[in-house]
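Cont'd.
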Amino acid sequence: MSHMQIEQLRGRLDELNSQLLELLSERAEIGQQIGEWKRNAGLPLHDPVREKEMLDRLAAQNSGPLDEATVRRLFGDIFKATLQVQIEAPAKRKLLVSRASHREDTVVQIGDTAIGGGEPVLVAGPCSVESREQVREVAAALKRAGVPVIRGGAFKPRTSPYDFQGLGFEGLKLLKEAADEFGLLTISEIVTPAHLEEAAQYVDIIQIGARNMQNFELLKAAGDMRKPVLLKRGLAATMDEFLHAAEYIVSRGNSQVMLIERGIRTYEKWTRNTLDISAVPLLKRESHLPVLVDVSHSTGRKDIMAPCAKAALAAGADGIMVETHPNPAAALSDADQQLDLGEFAEFVRDVQSSGLYRAIKS
Ligand SMILES: O=C(O)C(=O)C[C@]1(C(=O)O)C=C[C@@H](O)C=C1
C-alpha cells in the first residue's frame, strides 16, 4: 500500500473519529436528560437490567470484525461514561450568572452611565445619610470629581442595636434630592423585602449588603424587581456561595446584577477585613456580571485605599466604591475609614494618575 493510500485511510479514520465523538456526545446528552428524569422520580441512575438488554442486542447484531467480548466491553465503557455524566450533572449545572451560559460581559446601563465591560466607574458617598446638608455637600464634591453614582446608607444593619440605625426612607429621600440636584445616580442598601418597591422610587441601584448576601427572601424579592442590584460578598462567603446568591436574583428574571468584593474575615487585624483581590479576576472569569471593589469596608484604613483601588482596577474591576464624608470625625457610622472631601479629591486624582480610571467630565 502506498504512503498516499495510508494517508487517505487515516483521513477516513479521522472523519469517523469525529463522527463517533459527535454521536457519543449526543448519546451522553440524551443520557443526561434520562438521568434528570430519574433523579426527579427518585429512581436509581444505574440500571444493570437495561444495560444487559442493550449489550445482548448489540452482541446479536454484531457481524465482526470486532469479537463479541470487545463489543460488550466497549459499550460497557460507554454506559459507564454516560452514568458518570448523569452523576456529575447537578454539580456542573451552568448557572445563569456564569460565563459558560453567557459569554459577553453584562453591561448595566443606567441613563448615561454604563457599569461593566468598558470604562470603570467610581461610586462614592457617605457611609450613612445623616442630613440634607451633609449629603448635598458630598454630592457636589462627587460632581466636581466626575463621579456619577452617590452611595449613602439609610437602612443600616449595624453590629450593635445601640448604634445609629439610619434615617430610613427619610434618608433615601435626602439622597435622591441631592443626587437630582447634581445629576447623579443613587445607590443604597435595602434590608427588608417589603421596602423594595417604595425604595425603588429613590434609588437607581438597590444594594444588598454583606450580612444579607444569603437572605434568600430578600434575594428573591430583588430578583422580582426590574432594577439594578449591587450584591455585596458576605463576610465569609466563598465564590461559589456568592455566585449562587447572585443566581437567586438573576433566575427570577432580573439580569441587572453587579457583584462587589468588600473584604472577607480573616485572622489579619491590620485591616478591617482582608481585601480578596483574587476574587476580581476569578469572578470576571467565572461570571459575566460586572465586578466592583469596596476599598473602604475591605481595608478600613485611608492610607492604603488608593493603592488597593489601583490593584482592583489592574485586576479587572469594573468599578470602585469608596466612602467620603464632609466631616468624618463627626460621622454617625464608620468615622475612621471615611475620607474627607479633600482626601477624596486626592484619592480620585491618585487613582486617575494610574491610567486605569478616567473621571467622567461633565
Ligand atoms: O436508559 C437509562 O435508564 C439510562 O440511564 C441510560 C444508560 C445508557 O447509557 O444507556 C445509562 C446508565 C444506566 O445504567 C443505563 C443506561
